[in-house]
Write a structure and sequence with these properties.
There is one protein chain. This protein is of the alpha/beta class. The protein has 16 helices and 15 strands. This is Putative terminase. It comes from viral metagenome. InterPro entries: P-loop_NTPase (IPR027417).
């Protein structure tokens, strides 16, 4: 959320109302510091004082058993409201609550551990509520991870968090009259964000809103647009301020993320084990199991595909092994596989995908566990279509030089509109890949497993090994590819399942 929009006050009103109305109902307010918890609690006490002293609300009057700086309790319905501090290791211990207001969780110390501990005080039962409200505080912290997990799993029965974002431009007070005699002319940056919000939300910013934004950047944010975006975001992606400079264009990726998020339920998810021994996947999933593979397009006869893979150790809680499948002609991500299985199982599934997608070329990142993957593909599956690097060795070797070259290739393909991504995790990792202290790497607290497979794909695609890609990019045909492809994709999302001869949809 943006600052000063009244959500903390609203949360306190909700918790106080529940305490007042329900019997045996315990609520707690939890903030990053004791003084902040106390401030929020004072809001609830203000509500309570006004209700109890109102002659018009006699029907809500309660007999108070306790009222002090940290708690008040009603005697007649045995309901109470108290405060806790997230910085305390004993926060919430020995208590059971029916409602929690967790404030500014992005600034909590040991946020993940504290959050897990506090959650144990809230039973999984009807008539329980947890409100998490915060402004953003950088990338990689627990609040950041909670937000994106809730966003990406919205609608899943396994996710209980409903993400709600409120932009600065939705707040009526965030506008300023333009002084008489002043001609307001939008800057290029203001024109860009106006177009972005219109594309994403079908909203048109007024001159008064932009004038307030310009004033706020100069006077409240030290002239720093990025700081304004964190304190007063216009979309979720703006809120999370990276410590380094993003390597890839965040605005473009934000639009892609928003588009794919809206359409993600139109894509199918498959369990690869459902199709053991079969060369082709069947549409649908008869037993309803949710699998590891997201598929965005079925293989088209005579089309060429590229698979890039970055295997990890396979330990639970460690890095993920990632595999991406690209259609060479359209530059589209047609399948995505992310897992924490052992390398031999990962290799088996990479092989299956390769066979499925017309015996696709496999380009593994060969450092560390990549050697094992190559050995498995060669010896166990006798698979011959494995990418050879410049020195004729199998796989892509990540060195200082090849890494920089590959990242630059990826920047070029993204800038020219050739690559088209569907997977939300893929897009998110691109957004959190930054240049910090001279090095291009994942933002602290984030991962780059996805980005590794993407720069390998970009390197392979632009080195003349796949001539139709090089020709498309060099001839500047990429924008027409992208526009045409989006048109075909829209038709597919409307229910047209017949593959197009050019794009494969």
């Amino acid at each position: 959320k943006a600052r000063q929009q009244g959500f903390s006050t609203l949360a306190e009103a909700i918790l106080y109302s529940l305490t007042l109305v329900y019997d045996n109902f315990s609520c707690a307010v939890i903030a990053d510091k004791d003084k902040n918890s106390q401030h929020l609690f004072e809001i609830s006490k203000y509500y309570n004082d006004n209700v109890m002293n109102s002659s018009e609300l006699v029907f809500l009057h309660r007999q108070q058993e306790k009222s002090n700086a940290k708690e008040f309790k009603f005697k007649d319905n045995n309901s109470s409201m108290s405060i806790e501090t997230a910085g305390s290791r004993r926060a919430g211990q020995s208590h059971t609550f029916q409602a929690l207001h967790c404030s500014e969780i992005s600034t909590w110390i040991n946020a993940k551990e504290t959050f897990i501990s506090i959650n144990q005080t809230l039973p999984n039962a009807p008539r329980t509520l947890q409100i998490l409200e915060t402004t953003a505080n950088g990338i990689g912290n627990h609040a950041y991870n909670l937000w994106w997990d809730a966003t990406e799993n919205l609608g899943s029965p396994e996710s209980s968090i409903i993400p709600i974002f409120v932009a600065w431009w939705e707040h009526a007070e965030y506008q300023m009259p333009i002084p008489q005699g002043v001609q307001f002319i939008m800057t290029k940056e203001e024109q860009d964000i106006t177009k972005k919000y219109k594309d994403m939300y079908s909203v048109t910013l007024t001159s008064e809103q932009l004038y307030w934004r310009r004033w706020c950047i100069r006077n409240n944010c030290g002239g720093d647009v990025r700081q304004f975006n964190q304190e007063y975001p216009g979309c979720p992606e703006e809120a999370f301020l990276a410590s380094g400079s993003p390597v890839f264009d965040v605005d473009t990726l934000s639009r892609a993320y928003e588009y794919e998020f809206k359409n993600k339920l139109n894509y199918k998810k498959y369990d690869i084990d459902e199709y053991m021994g079969k060369l082709r996947f069947q549409v649908g999933n008869s037993n309803g199991l949710e699998g590891d593979i997201d598929m965005y397009g079925m293989p088209v006869p005579n089309f060429r595909y590229l698979i890039t893979a970055d295997p990890a150790e396979g330990k639970e809680g460690g890095d993920y092994s990632v595999c991406n499948v690209f259609c060479i002609r359209s530059g589209e991500q047609v399948a995505h596989y992310s897992t924490q299985v052992d390398v031999d199982l990962f290799g088996m599934n990479v092989y299956r995908l390769a066979v499925l997608y017309n015996n696709a070329m496999i380009a593994p990142e060969r450092n560390n566990h990549g050697h094992s993957l190559i050995t498995i593909l060669e010896n166990q599956y006798n698979y011959g279509n494995i990418y050879k690097f410049d020195d004729d060795s199998l796989g892509f070797p990540t060195t200082t030089k090849s890494r920089v070259d590959a990242i630059n290739d990826l920047k070029r393909l993204l800038r020219e509109g050739y690559l088209l991504f569907h997977n939300l995790k893929t897009i998110k990792e691109l957004m959190t890949f930054v240049k910090d202290k001279g090095k291009m790497q994942a933002q602290e607290g984030c991962h780059d497993d996805e980005v590794t497979t993407l720069w390998v794909a970009a390197y392979v695609m632009t080195r003349g090994l796949l001539s139709d890609v090089s020709a498309a990019v060099d001839a500047k045909q990429t924008n027409s590819y992208k526009t045409f492809y989006h048109d075909i994709r829209k038709q597919r999302l409307k229910g047209n399942k017949k593959p197009n001869k050019t794009t494969g949809w």
